[in-house]
Amino acid sequence: MLHFGKFAAAFTVAASLMAGTAAAQTMLRSSDTHPDGYPTVEGVKYFGELVKERTEGRYSVEVYHSAQLGQESDTLEQVRTGVIDLNRTSMGPWNGLIPETTIPSLPYIFRSVEHARKVMNGPIGDEILAAFEPHGVVALAFYDGGARSFYNSKKPIESVEDLKGMKFRVMQSDIFVDMVAALGASATPMPYGEVYTGIETGVIDGAENNFPSYDTAKHAEVAKYFSLDEHLIVPEVLVMSKLTWDRLSPEDQEIVRKAAKDSVEKQWELWDAQVAKSRGIVEAAGSTITQPDKQAFIDAMKPVYDKHVTDPKLQDLVKRIQETQ
User: Fold this and answer.
1) Rounded to an integer, what is the distance from CA 54 to the centroid of its chain?
2) Looking at the predicted structure, is the pLDDT value of residue 14 above 90?
3) Please, are residues 314 and 102 in contact by the beta-carbon 8 Å criterion?
4) What topology is assigned to 24-145+234-265 in CATH?
5) What is the pLDDT of residues 146-168, one digit of tens each?
6) What is the CATH number of domain 148-232+279-323?
């Protein structure tokens, strides 16, 4: 009985410690509009695995994909007010709030995906991340959102002239609207979920996006012509609510920030695999892929830069990005 009593006492102590550990665990909620398995969703999941491992289980991350917590415009406010802890979003919705975010959103600011990754994962990217903090969030890292190109239901796009008079869906962004206008086409902002029907019914001729979105949203079914002009290479950003951040110890803040940075290359790897897979799928299904000479497209962007980059500080940021080798 004595031995049993010692065992029972030890078990009670162990159970108490386990309960205390369980009580100390914090689940961080993260939002993403993309479906489960999408590279940004999987990138944030990997970030969560690193956080859980490095905090010895004190923190973990639950990713609510497929817009379960709302569309991006809704979740931006939720993360700023601390209703949700983390959010993976595109850059466009931040443009009106954080001027620095307009620069990576400019057409042809990046020469290639490799150039974009080098800039956004380096000192210039860190400078742009820091610009988020006065606005209720701590920006942790930039993910690859792919190169966006035009696709349509009418004809192959071989030159700028081929775009004239056509109607394309764009995100709600003044830069995107002005970009399409500079190419002689008409921009129609509309929700992403309405694009398929819009093309199918002729409300719009096409849209612009990357291969994974063109594939997974089934837009290739109604818009068979994809022009690889790569006019936008806009990064995605992972942010944490400042209210959540301030509840972390300095040591845990460092763990979270480093885990986000360490998840970037994993997300790139997932993204590259998805691009190759999606391109193969749409080509096999009959999409026509053309690759126009980009220089005429680039030359047409001068009025867009003149209108949206008037602040000398932002002009310097453009110059430094363009000079990055």
Assistant:
1) 25
2) no
3) yes
4) D-Maltodextrin-Binding Protein; domain 2 (3.40.190)
5) 999 999 999 999 999 999 999 99
6) 3.40.190.170
